[in-house]
Amino acid sequence: MVWVGRETGIFTTWDDAKRQVDKFPKAKYKSFKTKTEAETAFSGGSPRTYAAKASNSSSSSKSNKAPTARTSASNADYDVVIYTDGGCEPNPGKAGSGVAVYKDNALSELWYGLYNSYGTNNSAELNALHQALLLAKEHLTAGKTVHIRSDSQYSINCITTWAYGWKTKGWKRKTAGDIKNLDIIQASHALYDELKDKLIISHVSAHIGIEGNELADRMSIYAIDKKDAEFCRYPDPIELTGILSLRTG
């Protein structure tokens, strides 16, 4: 199973998993005896950190055992950690996006907006991820390490995995039907493709008390309430208790 890599998720062979973590910065992965154990761990959203050690030896390439665990993953592992979330009431309906930014392991910025009176949860999640990529580019250009955490596996898959296949087919699906949210997927994928060698994107479970995810959620609903079409920075000072008391998505 891969928490952080070129693609995230559960892989049934070491060769597939190795392609996601080999030489990927701060990759996080682990092997499990059963698929059920892997699914339980992956949905937990709190991976342990494993060093991805590439090797050209045949014994290493065939092994499916994870390296020794080092430490628990946290915001302190990166210069900048960006949490994203999207909300929609109902779905489809009024949609908004939110982002929470941590710098040097401390909450630094909150963002909200991109209100759409007839959006979807998926479009709101993609919009939030796109804004996170724009912020990530600024920090990566400045030499910072960046980790984006989204609670939308759909959004992550769209821009990091599925888009490659769609692009080779002229942005068409294998089956009939158009690709939904294509414009934002194309824009986000182009950014991801530019940054992927330095950027880490991973899935985080929603509504389990992870502060960054909870704050991004509050901002997405705040965007719906404010009906702001622009993406706006929440004004300082950030009063954490008050923001967390806002209604949730």
TrEMBL record:
SUPFAM superfamilies: L9 N-domain-like (SSF55658), Ribonuclease H-like (SSF53098)
Subunit structure comment from the entry: Monomer.
Reactions performed catalytically: Endonucleolytic cleavage to 5'-phosphomonoester
PROSITE patterns given in the database record: RNASE_H_1
Top-level taxon in the UniProt lineage: Bacteria
GO molecular function: magnesium ion binding; nucleic acid binding; RNA-DNA hybrid ribonuclease activity
Biased composition (Low complexity): 51-66
Class of this enzyme: hydrolase
GO terms for biological process, alphabetical: DNA replication, removal of RNA primer
Protein name: Ribonuclease H
Keyword annotations from UniProtKB, A to Z: Endonuclease, Hydrolase, Magnesium, Metal-binding, Nuclease
Family membership: Belongs to the RNase H family.
Biological source species: Shewanella violacea (strain JCM 10179 / CIP 106290 / LMG 19151 / DSS12)
Its biological purpose: Endonuclease that specifically degrades the RNA of RNA-DNA hybrids.
Region: Disordered, residue numbers: 40-70
Listed InterPro entries: Ribosomal_bL9/RNase_H1_N (IPR009027), RNase_H (IPR050092), RNase_H1_euk (IPR017067), RNase_H1_N (IPR011320), RNase_H1_N_sf (IPR037056), RNaseH-like_sf (IPR012337), RNaseH_domain (IPR002156), RNaseH_sf (IPR036397)
Cofactor requirement: Mg(2+)
